[in-house]
Structures are given as C-alpha cells and as structure tokens.
Write a structure and sequence with these properties.
about 240 residues, alpha/beta, four-stranded antiparallel β-sheet, 9 helices, globular, binds adenosine-5'-diphosphate, binds magnesium ion
C-alpha cells in the first residue's frame, strides 16, 4: 500500500531524513517510535507530500507520487492525517467540520455527507455532539472529531502524528480505543506515538527512528523485549 525508497529530506543544511526505506502492506499497522527531533513527523509528512522529499520515491497503492498539484489532491484524498493539534475549524460545528471536505472535494450533497458524517460520529462515540462547536469539547473529543473528519474522505491509509500527546492523561484512552477499532477493521495505519502500550497491543510492526534513520524494526515483541541496537535499548530504557 505504501512503499518508500531512499527518502531524503533536508531543511537548508540540515539533513533530517537520511535515506529511509519502508514498505507498509494493506491492513498493516506500523508504529514509529523515537526521540524528539529524529525525523518522525517529517517522514510522515513526506508520505503525503506535505513535505517534498529531496530524493527518493514514494509509491502509494502502486502509483509513484508525482508532485503535481492534481495528483497531490488525489493523493491526499486517499491518505487521512491526524495531528497532535487537532486543527478543527473553530467556526464550524462538529458536523460542519466532518462534512466540509467531502462536500467540497467529493461532490457529495450536504444530505449525503451528513448521513455519512453521522455514521462516523457514532463510530467515534460523538453522535450527540454533532451540533456543538469545537471549543465546547474536551481534547479527547476534539481528537475523535478530527479522526471522524479524516475518515469522511474514505481514505485507504491513515497517518497519525502523536495523536494523544496534547491530551490530559485521562483522555488518552478514548482516542486510542477509536484507533484500535480502526485497526481491527483493517485500516492501513502509520502511527507516531509514545504510547508503548498501544504499540505492543496494536502494532504489527514497530519502527525505531533516530537521527534521520530507521535504526531498527521488528514485531512489538522483538523491539520491546529483545532490542538489538544500543540506541533502541537506551531510548526504551528512558521510558521505564
Ligand atoms: P520528530 O517528529 O521526530 O520530533 P521532526 O521531523 O519534527 O522530528 O524534526 C526533525 C528535525 O527537522 C528537527 O531538527 C526539526 O527542527 C527539523 N525541522 C522539522 N521541520 C522543519 C522545517 N519546516 N524547517 C526547518 N527545520 C525543520
Ligand atoms: Mg514529531
């Protein structure tokens, strides 16, 4: 579903991604862990060309990404993204947020989009908040709306960049459980997170990034129980 080959990204003189290879199969859940500044967000952003890699190729669903505007719009319809900061439109209701993109880009009627939107809000447990404004929601609720909004475009892939890092601890679980459900339903997911419990339970594969490289990857068991690289051991050691 996703194939990244030798992805390199530099900002001015700073080489942030130093040649990353990663293949993600359909239905696979890949969790990326690693210290702050190791390039995790940049790598996710390269996958849907929010950042343009300086080198390398990214293939989505068999198609090599060409950075032309039309094909990027198509690409972003196929890849949903959820950020640490929820980025909801504050002047729109929850339902308004969810139906904005499908009405604009998928040429759905408002009624069609609303029906679909209500299904999605039910899925994330927020049907009763459809007419609220974002500032009346908790962080966990906002993030669940952000997930519903991304799903409204019917993406084939979902990218999550530290979706629970901005939340109070007691709100983390409700967001993770929505993500778990999504994984169970077979969504292809790449998740940057510090939630090691989630990684252990849900990931098919865990990637450890450091200094712009993939240092080590394996099953959750391999990475958490038997890491082989010193840097992985050190990083996991700090979390205990
Ligand atoms: P992580 O998500 O692992 O914390 P990032 O991908 O956000 O790491 O950042 C990796 C490095 O790239 C950091 O040194 C960061 O300062 C730098 N960086 C990220 N985005 C930009 C940007 N738009 N311009 C310049 N430097 C950036
Ligand atoms: Mg980051």
């Amino acid at each position: 579903m996703i194939s990244c080959k030798n992805v390199v990204k530099t900002f001015n003189d700073l080489e942030v991604l130093k040649g990353i290879d990663l293949d993600v199969a359909a239905g696979e859940v890949v969790v990326i862990i690693g210290p702050s500044g190791s390039g995790k967000s940049t790598f996710l952003r390269c996958m849907n060309y929010l950042e343009t890699p300086n080198n390398g190729t990214i293939t989505i669903n068999g198609k090599v990404i060409e950075p032309k505007e039309a094909s990027l719009n198509q690409l972003r319809q196929e890849i949903g993204m959820v950020f640490q900061q929820f980025n909801l439109f504050p002047h729109m209701t929850v339902m308004g947020n969810v139906i904005e993109a499908p009405v604009l880009l998928k040429k759905m009627t408002k009624d069609q989009a609303k029906a679909k939107g209500m299904e999605l809000l039910q899925k994330v447990g927020l049907a009763e908040k459809a007419n609220e404004y974002p500032n009346r929601l908790s962080g966990g609720q906002k993030q669940r709306v952000a997930i519903a909004r991304a799903l409204a475009m019917e993406p084939k892939i979902m990218l999550f960049d530290e979706p629970t890092s901005a939340l109070d601890p007691e709100l983390v679980g409700e967001v993770l459980s929505v993500m778990k459900q999504l994984a169970k339903e077979g969504m292809t997911m790449v998740v940057v997170t510090h939630e090691m419990g989630f990684a252990k339970e849900v990931a098919d594969r865990v990637i450890f990034m450091d200094g712009g490289y993939i240092v080590e990857e394996g099953t959750p068991e391999e990475i958490f129980e038997r890491p082989t690289h010193e840097r992985t051991k050190e990083f996991l050691g700090h979390l205990k």
